From TrEMBL:
The lineage of its organism: Bacteria, Bacillati, Bacillota, Clostridia, Eubacteriales. InterPro entries: CoA_activase_DUF2229, Dehydratase_Activator_Redct, FldB/FldC_alpha/beta. Transmembrane segments: none annotated. Residues 2-199 form the DUF2229 domain. Gene3D superfamilies: 3.40.50.11900. Keywords: Kinase, Transferase. This is Predicted nucleotide-binding protein, sugar kinase/HSP70/actin superfamily.
Length: 301
């Protein structure tokens, strides 16, 4: 069986798990290409205008591979951690894809709860039985895939730069260099290193959010807020660059929370959508870096 894996949404985070799982079940993996203009245009045409850019891009990835495979992974991720949720768009992504794209092969629809191995195995079983009737084979594939995922080290932590910024944003915005116009590279070329939230342990982030009136409902909010709070306390960063998807409700809450609680910290909000022009993007980054440098020189004087 040929299994299609669209390179969008949380692909960058869970690729080791999903690829291993399907390979262990004997499938041939067909990954979509890296995001490009064609995929973006396809996604923008197929998807409703109101959706955020990553959802549109995901549509483009599915359209690109749908005729080459027998099954496509559409990860309906409901929860990553207990008592927290991710975006509602993840919960409804199979329905969005089904309604917007015609002539699809089989798509995966079972919900994914990552915080519990038993609940996660339910997804594996529901999905795995499309490929094999052998329960033990599914169980073994699931265990191997979990082991591969555990070995995967995420995050960026540049060393040797005079200035350093926290690069905040969803995995699919940070690691998709087409979507973000290679923002890390742009910062590095201007002499600015980057650190992302994954390099700080989850337990540390949990401790940091205790100062909030209420534990954040959204996993992304806890991760980004907790990381920034810790990074500032430990003087790891000179500023914050937030890469946000236009029309992302979750980002709009997190951005305000960060601006409110860390108001004296240099903050650059870069909103991205299908119309974002690279020239304007570059100008804003350059102006921000210039301000960071002057601020640092001022502090040293
Ligand atoms: S979290 Fe924001 S960017 Fe991500 S899918 Fe949801 S709305 Fe889109």
């Amino acid at each position: 069986m040929k299994v299609g894996i669209p390179k969008g949404l949380l692909y960058y985070k869970y690729k080791p798990f999903f690829n291993t799982f399907f390979e262990e079940l004997g499938a041939e993996i067909i990954e979509s290409p890296d995001t490009n203009k064609d995929i973006l245009d396809l996604g923008s045409t197929l998807c409703t205008d109101e959706a955020c850019l990553p959802i549109k891009v995901f549509h483009g990835h599915v359209e690109k591979i749908k005729d080459k495979c027998d099954l496509i992974l559409i990860p309906r991720i409901m929860q990553i951690y207990k008592r927290e949720f991710i975006c509602p768009k993840f919960c409804g992504i199979p329905e969005m894809i089904e309604n917007n794209i015609e002539d699809l092969p089989i798509i995966t629809k079972a919900p994914i709860y990552l915080f519990s191995s038993d609940k996660f195995f339910k997804w594996a079983y529901e999905t795995g039985k499309i490929l094999t009737k052998n329960f033990f084979k599914i169980q073994k594939a699931f265990e191997r895939a979990q082991n591969e995922q555990k070995k995967f080290k995420e995050g960026i932590n540049d060393k040797g730069y005079a200035l350093k910024v926290a690069l905040i944003g969803h995995t699919y915005n940070i690691y998709d260099t087409f979507i973000n116009m290679n923002v890390k590279n742009k910062l590095n070329k201007l002499g600015v290193g980057v650190i992302t939230h994954e390099v700080v342990d989850d337990n540390v982030k949990y401790l940091e959010i205790k100062k909030l009136f209420k534990r954040p409902f959204w996993t992304f909010a806890r991760e980004y807020y907790g990381f920034i709070s810790y990074a500032l306390k430990e003087s790891l960063i000179d500023g914050i660059v937030y890469l946000s998807s236009f029309a992302c409700g979750i980002d709009s809450v997190i951005v305000e929370l960060i601006k409110l609680d860390f108001e004296n910290v240099p903050f650059l909000l870069l909103k991205i959508d299908e119309h974002t022009g690279e020239a304007g993007f570059d100008t804003r980054i350059e102006a921000f870096v210039d301000m960071l440098s002057r601020r640092k020189r001022g502090n040293l004087a």
